[in-house]
């Protein structure tokens, strides 16, 4: 059985429904105005900005600055892309690298491999060459050449800088240390005497006693070099080297 509503309740419900409809209509009008009213009058601030030349000038300045920056960067680092030009025709770095790789690729690859293997062995054997050792050895070499000027002339002849020469000296000392650690090198008096007798014309009127120390050092260096070649051959065989050139 359905419960009947009193006239008072019905009137109250009608009043609430009417108020709800009125509020809904107002809300819809506000939403429509916000969504669709895009006239200049409704956006006074934007209208004012559009008329201002400051925004355009700022954009133009930024574009100019960016263009100059890109040009300067391109000029500074163009060598990474281009090797040069001939009659305005560009020669790419890739083209140059290809040509150099064909001509010197294997030699350069082997040098890099040897350096990597040497660095690894030096680290494994805790071998370090100090700056003082390099300086002392450099001084000895300069003395052997007869002075600073003769030494620099020799560097120039071979296209070396002093820095490159010191790097080479450091590497030689490193190799010497690692060879001395892995091999027992001894030069006997008999070897020294034999060398003197076999090369008397080289020593002219010098006595054996005066040159024996130099001969022994020469023979020692020769033996170090021989053992170095032997040692490098061994570690290269043990290494996994995979060339792609």
Automatic annotation (TrEMBL):
Q: Which InterPro entries match?
A: PrsA_foldase, Trigger_fact/SurA_dom_sf
Q: What class of enzyme is it?
A: isomerase
The annotated region (Disordered) lies at 1-21
Q: Does the keyword Transmembrane helix apply?
A: yes
UniProt keyword annotations, A-Z:
Isomerase, Membrane, Rotamase, Signal, Transmembrane, Transmembrane helix
Q: Which reaction does it catalyse?
A: [protein]-peptidylproline (omega=180) = [protein]-peptidylproline (omega=0)
Record keyword Thylakoid present: no
EC? 5.2.1.8
Q: Which GO terms describe its molecular function?
A: peptidyl-prolyl cis-trans isomerase activity
Q: Where are the transmembrane segments?
A: 56-74
Task: Write down the superkingdom of origin.
Answer: Bacteria
- UniProt name for this protein: peptidylprolyl isomerase
Q: Which organism is it from?
A: Candidatus Collierbacteria bacterium CG1_02_44_10
Q: What is the lineage of its organism?
A: Bacteria, Candidatus Collieribacteriota
């Amino acid at each position: 059985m359905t419960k009947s509503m009193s006239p008072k309740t019905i009137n109250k419900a009608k009043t609430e429904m009417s108020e709800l409809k009125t509020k809904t209509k107002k809300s819809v009008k506000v939403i429509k105005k916000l969504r669709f009213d895009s006239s200049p009058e409704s956006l006074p601030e934007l209208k004012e900005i559009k008329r201002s030349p400051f925004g355009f000038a700022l954009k133009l300045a930024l574009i100019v600055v960016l263009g100059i920056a890109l040009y300067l960067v391109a000029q500074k680092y163009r060598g990474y892309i281009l090797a040069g030009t001939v009659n305005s025709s560009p020669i790419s770095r890739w083209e140059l690298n290809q040509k150099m790789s064909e001509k010197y690729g294997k030699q350069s690859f082997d040098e890099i491999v040897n350096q990597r293997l040497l660095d690894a062995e030096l680290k494994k054997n805790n071998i370090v060459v100090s700056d003082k050792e390099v300086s002392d050895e450099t001084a000895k070499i300069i003395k052997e050449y007869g002075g600073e000027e003769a030494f620099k002339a020799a560097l120039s002849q071979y296209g070396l800088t002093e820095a490159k020469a010191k790097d080479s000296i450091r590497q030689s000392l490193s190799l010497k240390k690692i060879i001395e650690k892995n091999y027992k090198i001894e030069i006997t008096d008999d070897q020294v005497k034999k060398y003197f007798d076999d090369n008397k014309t080289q020593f002219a009127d010098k006595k054996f006693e005066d040159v024996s120390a130099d001969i022994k050092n020469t023979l020692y260096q020769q033996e170090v070099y021989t053992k170095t070649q032997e040692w490098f051959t061994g570690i290269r065989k043990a290494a996994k080297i995979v060339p792609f050139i």
